[in-house]
Amino acid sequence: MRGEAGPGSYKAAYARAPFVFAIAKATALPGPILVGLMSDLAGSPSSNKALLHRMTAGGALELSRAGRVGIYRMAGRLFVGFAAVRGDGSLRAEAWDGRFHSLIYDIPESRRRERDRFLMAAHQVGYRTLRPGLLISPTDEHRALAGLADLGVLEAWVTFSEHEIGDIVTRAWRLAEFRHEYELAIARLETMLAADLEGLDGVAAMQAMFESEGLRTGLLLRDGALPPDLTPPDWPAARLLALVQEAERRLDGAAVAYVERRIAASPHAHLVEADLSWP
Which Pfam families does its entry note (predicted)? Predict the structure, then answer.
């Protein structure tokens, strides 16, 4: 069960490292252990080393050294997203107060690369396009974005009438598309749960758990973690979460035991730092 593509444009490759941190219940992992377990999920050791290099260069991971061995820790938005997915943090800096924070931009075509980077970064922290030149978010997340002044980006708070909000959120966050993607993820999980998950060996159980959690994580991160006040009453996120938790309950024993054996057999096991916040 090595599926790489979750719903929509979510890239499961970038979820390998945080998944390994989670299943190992670790805050720090030596490179050989991290790369080995990532390669059990998908990809070759060389491709996963390259992936870790890109994630470190992008600020998603921190790298220190113990002799010649690299020690990795999650950082930045990756750590924030990890905490939110785990349930002990939020992707947003504060609760929604009924207003929308807006970013207003007019970046010329001659700076297209900078504009594209800005839009991608803004999307990652929860802003969505209401119309060209205007991004909105239920909360102020602009502090997570760098270089706004250099790009001439302005910020403001906007309010909409109560009867407009539903339509605005539906369009900007493309809720109809996301509902369909949630339904596809739910159908996939229901198929998984109908199989003999308890009969999977350790590495297969870990791969299945990675797939199931990736279905939810991809949607949670891509829908901008909308506050419940802004989603329809029948929004399928809770149903998806319940199915993921059921899959985890059935897969956890074999998957965790496999990871523990892999770590214990490594000559770098003493460099693993346990995450004591896990139950």
Answer: PaaX_C, PaaX_M
Three-state secondary structure string covering 141-202: CHHHCCCCCCCCCEEEEECCCHHHHHHHHHHHCCHHHHHHHHHHHHHHHHHHHCCCHHHCCH
Contacts of 151 (CB under 8 A, 6+ apart): 105, 107, 111, 114, 115, 118
Can you tell me whether residue 98 is helix, strand or coil?
coil
Q: Which long-range contacts (CB under 8 A, 24 or more apart) does 51-57 make?
A: 51/13, 51/14, 51/16, 51/17, 52/17, 55/14, 55/17
List, for residues 156-201, the tens digit of each pLDDT value: 999 999 999 999 999 999 999 889 999 999 999 999 999 999 999 9
What residues are paired with 66 via a beta bridge? 69
pTM of the model: 0.81
When pLDDT is cut at 50, 70 and 90, the band that residue 278 belongs to is low
pLDDT of 117-138, one tens digit each? 899 888 878 899 999 999 999 9
Q: What is the pLDDT of residue 34?
A: 98
Burial per residue of 241-269, b for 16 or more beta-carbon CB atoms within 10 angstroms, e otherwise: eebbebbeebbeebbbebbeebbeebebe
Report whether pLDDT(38) > 70.
yes
Give the pair of three-digit tokens for residue 1: 């069960």
Q: Return the axis-axis angle of helices 202-222 and 175-193, rounded to nearest 10°.
A: 170
- Which pair of tokens denotes residue 213? 């959690």
pLDDT score at 147: 81
For residue 139, what are the β-bridge partners? Answer: none
Domain boundaries, the chain: 100-158, 174-255
